[in-house]
TrEMBL record:
Signal sequence segment: 1-17
Pfam families (alphabetical): TPR_16 (PF13432), TPR_6 (PF13174), TPR_8 (PF13181)
Keywords carried by this UniProt record: Repeat, Signal, TPR repeat
Keyword Transmembrane: no
Domain of life: Bacteria
Cited InterPro entries: O-mannosyl-transferase_TMTC, TPR-like_helical_dom_sf, TPR_rpt
Organism: Neolewinella lacunae
Protein's name in the database: Tetratricopeptide repeat protein
Amino acid sequence: MRLLFLFALLAALLPLAAQNQQLAQQYFLDGEYEKSADLYLQLFKERPENSFYFDRYVTSLLQLQRFDEAEAALKRQLRQQPEEVALYVKYGQLLEEKFDEEGAKKQYAKAIEELPADQFRITQLANAFIGMTKYDFAIAAYEKGSTLLKNKGLFSYNLGDLYRRKGENEPMISNYLDALAAEPKRQQQVETYFQRYLDKEGLLEAQKQLYTRIQEGNPNDTSYPEMLAWVFIQLKDYKSALRQARALDKRLDESGERVFRIGQMAANARDYETAISSFDYITDTKGTASPLYLEAKREGLLTRRRAITDGYDYTEQDLRILETAYTDFLDEFGINPASAGIAIQLAELEALFLNDLDRAISILTTVVETPGIQDKTQATAKLSLADFYLMQGEEWESTLLYSQVDKKFKEDLLGHEARFRNARLSYFRGDFEWAQSQFDVLKASTSRLIANDALDLSVFILDNLGLDTSARALQTYADAELLVFQNRFDEAFNTLDGLKRDFPGHDLEDDIIYLKANIYQKLRRYQDAATAYQSLIDGFPESIRLDNSLFALAGLYEKQLGDLAKAQELYETLFIDYSGSILAVEARKKYRELRGDAVQ
């Protein structure tokens, strides 16, 4: 009966205690400190082992500036629990409220001095200091705790956080690296902090510390070499990142995947030399049985092509070396569904750079007829094949292939692209009204590039079709554009000069300059191209070609003419003054890259 009575009494008291706790919490949050002090004192008396109640009681007294009462309570509690070092922190807080800074510091130092070899107490004390933003004392608590527990790396991650809050990079990096050594699974967390808080100078400091640790550390430990490779990537030093990746690949006997990723990043950053070295490492060391072999071969070829053709200077010998590499690849693997993309690239190289249209058409015809080829790959080959037939002047073959792709991929981007090219062919032929009707439909394409090109041509035809009854000027300009498409540049120049002579003062004058600038760029006469683009920008501020000219001119200064400041200025002008242009977003991205921002 007595036990039953006791249980019944406890059952009645527990809900009451919980109710008082909630009420005290609400009073405290509402700033009613008189009431919260009384309730927390009552709760503490009922449960003297609960330090939270006592802390809230004293805090309420401090808010009420009842300093003597709070000090008496703290002294009494310290006599009873001298090992409760957090009480010294509270006492120091009280002294600060009384403007006794020196006394407060002595209490904080006393807390650290009396710190027991107990991980929970150490963490509790450090957190008390952190809550008061006294990071130096929190650091001292963790460092003393590490010594007491004889475990140097136990609180390294916490120390790294504290130095990060203080903005002290060198010790922050050192402690985070200590934490990484103790727990390699923290690598992603450390990388996140480094990426977020370290600038270039900070990353170079991390690089220096990692070098030292790798030289002095365990040669079988891979956490630091992996971290160093990551730091190199952040610094865009892909060559050094590759060196680390290859060493790790050999040490761990990996498949080459990390090396492959470095190659992809280097290629995207236009560090083509490093990218090619990455892909060649895989093909040279992993052998044909590797699942990455074929992909590395493909990426190596594509990167070599980009290195030569991506707006940079190259010689015919460079093109021939690349042609041989493609040919060797197809000799090794043949033209099949897996290698069709490579064959299409080779055909483009032959047609657009080596002017061998017959070989390009032969290769693409084989691709189109290859059994088992994916429909989209076949359609891509047909679009290129149609272009090359058009370059040879075989317009019927071109329109037939464009129409096939349009019909098969009616609602797909491939179909939209085919429809656009077919409409452009009609424009070349002089069937302007039909071409414009097609461009008007394509303005709604889900591809912004197709939609923008279609809009430009539609507006261009509309603006110029009614300028003379015979549309001779527009037809002459379309003839010049076709000649450019066919790489017949001398004839294009002559046609444009004739157009300007026969129609002086015509509204096509800015378009003539723009097309000539395009030709100069294709001929790699970059200074002539820049001069032409600049003359259009200066002389025709209302031209529909102006945003394209700004973007093209900025690209020339960035890549070929070596004036990055001028390129940055032009990109800024484009995205600020012509924010409605489809090129504005890309211009802003380029501007930020040149400014040194991290752009994803």
